[in-house]
Design brief:
Blueprint (H helix, E strand, L loop, with lengths): L16 E7 L5 E7 L8 E2 L31 E2 L5 E7 L2 H10 L1 E6 L6 H4 L15 E9 L10 E9 L2 E2 L7 E7 L4 E6 L4 H12 L6 E4 L15 H13 L3 E4 L2 H7 L2 E2 L2 E9 L5 E11 L14 H7 L8 E9 L14 H19 L3 H8 L8 E2 L5 E2 L4 H12 L1 H10 L6 E13 L3 H7 L8 E7 L5 E5 L8 H13 L6 E4 L17 H27 L8 E3 L2 E4 L2 E4 H10 L14 E6 L7 E13 L6 E11 L6 H21 L29 E6 L21 H13 L8 E2 L3 H15 L1
Parallel strand pairs: 1-13, 8-31, 11-12, 16-17, 22-23, 29-30
Antiparallel strand pairs: 1-5, 2-4, 2-6, 3-5, 7-17, 8-15, 9-14, 10-11, 10-13, 15-16, 18-19, 20-28, 21-22, 21-27, 24-25, 25-26, 28-29
Helix pairs in contact: 3-4, 7-8, 7-16, 12-13, 13-14, 15-16
Length: 761
């Protein structure tokens, strides 16, 4: 905001060279030969040069999962457009790109598969020949489903699809690698959410001890999951810097971002919902397919979406019968990566749009159908049909507040009158839960390579009474520095301008699996509290001695140890420890004013924040244009540590959700060519597309976390595609048109209206 950040692109090192990657122009082909002009042979490196470097392996212990080795540079074959083939090094990026353009590659083109449903069919071109098919993983869930149909009075079946999107943080990826000869250590500076995971991945690929690798994440201009994986580019630059003896830097440009590695969210569902005569949900029957692209990214990605669908599809609803089968398909497209709201956005879209269709079939208001089936507050904590343990909440109240805030009754009256401009208005709601801060038991059961354990905080006082807090998680725009400073201040009373929150450096911060899964305020917040609690006890012991009081007679208050005889500020206590040790009590803790403390929630299956989103839209039936007239979010994130930051997270998430709902779509040709290479072709919502978001807060504390807080960093992005699509379908129900694919573009709206009119004769 003030131009004071220090991103990868701002860093200059002596002797640093720039890197450009020659990337595959084809989606599927064998590399027959690579011709490098003689003048550039010392500046170009291919797979044949990477001796001793292992391909990236992103495995999981889930039964039936097929492994896909991801070569650092394409080795003998390319499997998607944008796959890196050669690393080109020069003084400037422009010169490096000129070198890449001079390289000639002889390809043998292979058949391409780009559709996830076609990829599952026998005879489809194989992305990985050794598999024999194109399926990473199949999962199945069945809970007494066969008994459902006999009880059902109403049912609907819908086929729904979400488009492949591209994550578009303001700052793309960026990497600097250097070999520090003084300490014999590889230093990698990367725009990453997970410095410690990147270090482990680099160690595996480069056959180095982790102690010989230091990963630093400077300021990071947005992540959203896109920067939560090990990059092939990180490995390539690390190898190159060590070999060449000077630093290397690669800055991703927007074309690379769009075409080579930022894909997400492509789902297909065939979903049947059943209800009884009263409109209560009885059962769901789903078959879901996720397009995972050509590889599973490290530490895991291919299993992440479909592997969760079966457990999160039931949403906030209580019903007795359930069946779900999921497929993770491989195609000749870049790997699908975790994106804000991982899997939940597609699941919420499929479920909530289908529930609206079920309500229309039953002839009742969609909000009434939901209200009949939501888990009730008196049932909390509640284990749902998919064995998700909801910790706390009042889902019916969130729905009630959303209905009231959007003004459902007034909207129905307005619809009956019609709009003066001829547009049709509609209202749509959607609800979701966001599991956050889930830990060891959940990820160990999934067989994930990196299982989170205790989150740690290293806290210490400086000799003049300042407080340094080091955490392993990393902030990339969430305001962690402010929120964690609040936690420390609430316990120790140190002024905020004397608290320094440090993170993003494996050389100085405690181990952490990083920033993902809306876990930071739960896990890092709990760890900071634990560390500050320990410091508080040590402060009281020293303070009691200085006040000549018993330890049981003092308390820590407003940044000072206080007794009946006086008070001594924490700054004075710090000075005593560091500079006047002769004044310390004889039984003082020898570790002094420096602690490392760990934290796990009382139950580590996660917290469950939730929200009800309500949208009012106007649809132009001639052009298909959609205007969002009003948007309401009723959100419960447990105890809100910093409401301002919470609102910022929700608004930012809703903006991304609006992109998913109405604009963002990465299309591919039959040959596997991405059909957008600039932001002129790939549409992102801007200020003019954003309505004013009205946010209502509920606070139902979690019984399992230190302050009752729940994670909510992803929630804003989950519900908008469902709520907006439901609003559009509500507007068009009189015509008989229905939209089941996101984004709901003007072209799709006009096509749906035309189809409905044709059916009506």
């Amino acid at each position: 905001m003030r131009g004071l950040g220090r991103f990868v692109g701002d860093i200059q090192l002596p002797g640093m060279m720039e890197v450009a990657f020659l990337r595959s122009p084809l989606a599927h082909a064998r590399i027959k030969s690579i011709a490098i002009p003689p003048a550039w042979r010392g500046s170009v490196f291919t797979a044949a040069d990477l001796e001793g470097v292992s391909a990236i392996r992103a495995d999981t212990a889930l039964p039936g999962f097929k492994s896909s080795l991801q070569p650092i540079l394409a080795d003998g074959k390319v499997r998607h457009v944008g796959e890196p083939i050669a690393m080109c090094i020069a003084r400037t990026r422009a010169e490096a790109e000129d070198i890449a353009a001079a390289i000639e590659i002889d390809f043998e083109e292979l058949p391409v598969v780009t559709d996830m449903l076609a990829a599952r069919k026998p005879g489809a071109p194989l992305v990985h020949e050794q598999w024999g098919d194109n399926t990473f993983l199949v999962t199945e869930t069945d809970v007494n489903f066969d008994a459902a149909k006999a009880k059902a009075a109403f049912s609907v079946t819908r086929e729904l699809r979400t488009a492949r999107q591209v994550m578009s943080p303001m700052e793309g990826r960026g990497v600097i690698a250097e070999w520090d000869t003084r300490v014999e250590q590889l230093i990698v500076t990367s725009s990453t959410q997970q410095p410690h995971i990147v270090r482990s991945g680099l160690a595996e690929c480069l056959a180095l001890d982790e102690g010989r690798i230091r990963v630093i994440a400077p300021d990071v201009g947005g992540g959203f999951g896109y920067k939560g994986v090990l990059l092939r580019e990180e490995v390539a630059l690390a190898w190159g810097a060590r070999k060449l003896g000077h630093p290397l830097r690669w800055i991703e440009d927007r074309r690379e971002n769009l075409t080579a590695g930022a894909d997400c969210r492509e789902h297909h569902y065939k979903l049947t919902a059943y209800a009884d005569r009263d409109g209560r949900l009885l059962a769901l029957d789903a078959e879901a397919t996720v397009d995972a692209g050509a590889y599973s990214a490290y530490p895991f990605s291919a299993c992440l979406e479909a592997g969760q669908i079966g457990s999160i599809l039931p949403g906030l609803y209580d019903f007795p019968h359930y069946r779900c089968k999921t497929y993770t398909a491989a195609t000749n497209k870049p790997p699908i990566l975790p994106y804000r709201g991982v899997a939940r956005t597609g699941v919420c879209f499929a479920l909530e749009v289908t529930l609206d269709a079920l309500a229309r079939e039953a002839g009742i208001e969609a909000t009434a159908l939901r209200a009949k089936s939501l888990v009730r507050p008196e049932q909390m904590p509640f284990d749902n049909i998919a064995k998700r343990h909801f910790d706390s909440g009042d889902y019916p109240e969130a729905l009630r507040q959303a209905v009231e805030a959007i003004g459902l009754d007034k909207i129905r009256a307005r619809q009956a009158k019609g709009e003066a401009d001829g547009r049709r208005i509609g209202v749509g709601l959607a609800m979701y839960s966001e599991q956050a801060g889930h830990g060891t038991s959940v990820y160990a059961a999934w067989g994930i390579p990196f299982v989170p354990g205790f989150e740690q905080c290293h806290a210490r006082f400086t000799p003049d009474g300042g407080l340094e807090i080091r955490i392993g998680a990393h902030s990339h725009g969430q305001g962690l520095e402010t929120s964690l400073s609040q936690v420390a201040h609430s316990i120790l009373g140190v002024p905020h301008d004397r608290i320094k929150v440090l993170h993003g450096d494996t050389g100085t911060s405690p181990y952490s699996t990083g920033t993902w899964g809306s876990r930071c305020m739960i896990m890092s917040g709990g760890a900071v509290a634990s560390a500050c609690d320990a410091l508080a006890e040590r402060m009281k012991r020293i303070g009691a001695k200085l006040l000549q009081s018993r330890e049981t007679d003092v308390r820590l208050e407003d940044g000072a140890v206080v007794s009946a005889t006086g008070r001594v500020a924490v700054g004075e206590i710090a000075r005593t420890w560091y500079r006047r040790p002769q004044d310390l009590p004889g039984d003082v803790d020898p570790c002094g004013l420096e602690v490392v403390a760990g934290y796990k929630a009382k139950r580590d299956t996660g917290t469950f924040s939730y929200a009800a989103h309500a949208a009012l839209v106007a649809v132009d039936t001639e052009t298909g244009d959609v205007e969002i007239l009003d948007y309401v979010v009723v959100e419960d994130g447990g105890t809100l540590v910093n409401p301002l930051i919470v609102d910022g997270q929700i608004i930012g998430g809703v903006a991304q959700g609006i992109g998913t709902a109405l604009y963002e779509e990465m299309l591919y040709s039959a040959e596997g060519q991405p059909l957008a290479a600039t932001l002129a072709e790939y549409l992102l919502p801007g200020c003019t597309e954003m309505p004013r978001i009205r946010i209502l807060h509920m606070e139902t504390p979690s019984p399992y976390t230190r302050f009752g807080q729940k994670g909510l960093g992803e929630g804003g992005a989950i519900a908008p595609p469902a709520s907006i699509t439901n609003a559009i379908n509500d507007a068009l129900k009189g015509i008989g048109a229905e939209l089941l694919v996101s984004p709901v573009t003007p072209r799709r709206i006009v096509a749906a209206i035309t189809s409905a009119q044709t059916r009506a004769g």
